[in-house]
Amino acid sequence: MLQFINQLPKAELHLHIEGSFEPELMFEIAKRNNIEIKYNSVEEVKEAYKFDCLQDFLDIYYAGAGVLTYERDFYDLTYSYLEKCAEQNVRHTEIMFDPQTHTHRGISFETVINGISKACEEAKKKLGVTSLLIMSYLRHLSEKDAFKTLEQSLPYKHLIKAVGLDSSEMGNPPSKFEKVFAASVKEGYIPVAHAGEEGPAEYIWEALNLLDIKRIDHGNNCFEDDLIEEIVKRDIALTVCPLSNTALQVVDDLKNHPIKKMMAKGLKVTVNSDDPAYFGGQVNQNFIEIQEALDLSKADLYEFAKNSFQYSLLDEDVKREYIEELDAFYLENR
Ligand code: HPA
Ligand code: ZN
User: Fold this and answer.
1) Whether pLDDT at 215 is above 90
2) Which of 59, 158, 197, 221 shows a CA-CA span of 20 to 30 A to 256?
3) Is the distance from the beta carbon of residue 54 to the nearest atom of ligand 1 less than 6 Å?
4) Cα(17)–Cα(37) distance, rounded to whole angstroms?
């Protein structure tokens, strides 16, 4: 099973690049930029990664991102994640980045996008991993601030596929961002959003009806009959992140994770890492642990992988090629 998971061709659809920042690289970049960090060792950092809730994590996540200063830092961060993709047979990834986390510290939008996108280009050539970028608005900030970010992104529109919504969910409902999402769609960005991670089903309804999202990030709190019916009708997927859910205590134990229940209701689900440096594993580790906890079959894992390509934001012909590759693998290894 381990080998099956490692070799299974897959896409990752829910990944925050700032959340892929491994402590080893954080120390290296802090050192070369002459920035003090409050931990003395990698072990000490890892010890601090114990969270009671989403906000607990976000405080540490934003502090960690604070050492990223130059284009090279964003490049190294992104390339390092993409190398891990290649090792795990992640053939395609859709990377979220939070411009406001950096522009609020005086780092230019250009520095961030150039570093990230150059790494993606290089990884496509050298590693054969394809990627798309999702610019995520921070929901704890104002809509006005999100509008400013949208404006800053426009010269780089050709590098960005979609817009997302992340950060502190409770008290920051999708309705707060209705106008900026409409403006983003007008500019050609595809809308996705975190919804129902800690927030109620009502926030998922809002994300669907007010933001017209094409994918739901997390969606754990979707269990209302008419909501499930609506998601199935719209044929949109949930990007589920098992180890994130236990790390942030959204789910108390992987054995109680709702992913199987979601599948049984006809929902299209994918498995992702969210913030792998903080939550105990890359995407394959998420596959391994959820498979063990729920005794999932190879057919279940194949379904996750197929959904990951099918519900990616790639063009249909590219999706088809990846799915053919996956099907050939599955035929040989099921
Ligand atoms: N939820 C909300 N915001 C985030 C997350 C998450 O899981 N990870 C990084 N930003
Ligand atoms: Zn997330």
Assistant:
1) yes
2) 59
3) yes
4) 19
Q: 119 vs 34, 62, 84, 228, CA distance in Å? A: 23, 22, 13, 38
* CA 29 to centroid of ligand 1, rounded, Å: 23
pTM higher than 0.85 for the full model? yes
Interval between CA 246 and ligand 2 midpoint (Å): 13
Centre of ligand 1 to C-alpha 186, Å, is 25
CA of 15 to the centre of ligand 2 (A): 6
Which of 197, 198, 206, 289 is the catalytic position? Answer: 197
What domains can be seen in the chain, in order of their start residue? 2-333 (3.20.20.140)
Closest residue by Cα to residue 170 from 75, 283, 54: 54
Strand locations in 203-306 (E): 215-218, 237-240, 268-271
Q: What is the pLDDT of residues 12-47, one digit of tens each?
A: 999 999 999 999 999 999 999 999 998 999 999 888
**DSSP code at position 37:** -
Q: Is residue 197 annotated as part of the catalytic site, yes or no?
A: yes
For 278-316, write each residue's pLDDT tens digit. 999 999 999 999 999 999 999 999 999 999 999 999 999
| Rounded (10°) CA dihedral 195, 130, 147, 170 | 20
Check pocket membership of 98 for ligand 1, CB cut-off 6 A.
no
Crossing angle for the helix pair 109-127 and 71-87, to the nearest 10 degrees: 30
Helix (H, G, I), strand (E, B) or coil at 88: coil
Task: Out of 15, 16, 81, give the residue to mutate to test ligand 1, the one with the largest number of ligand atoms within 8 Å of its CB.
Answer: 16
Q: For residue 169, give the ligand 1 atom closest to its CA.
A: 2
CA distances 61 to 19, 117, 142, 188, 301, Å, are: 7, 21, 20, 29, 30
Q: Determine whether the shortest distance from the Cβ of 102 to ligand 1 is under 6 A.
A: no
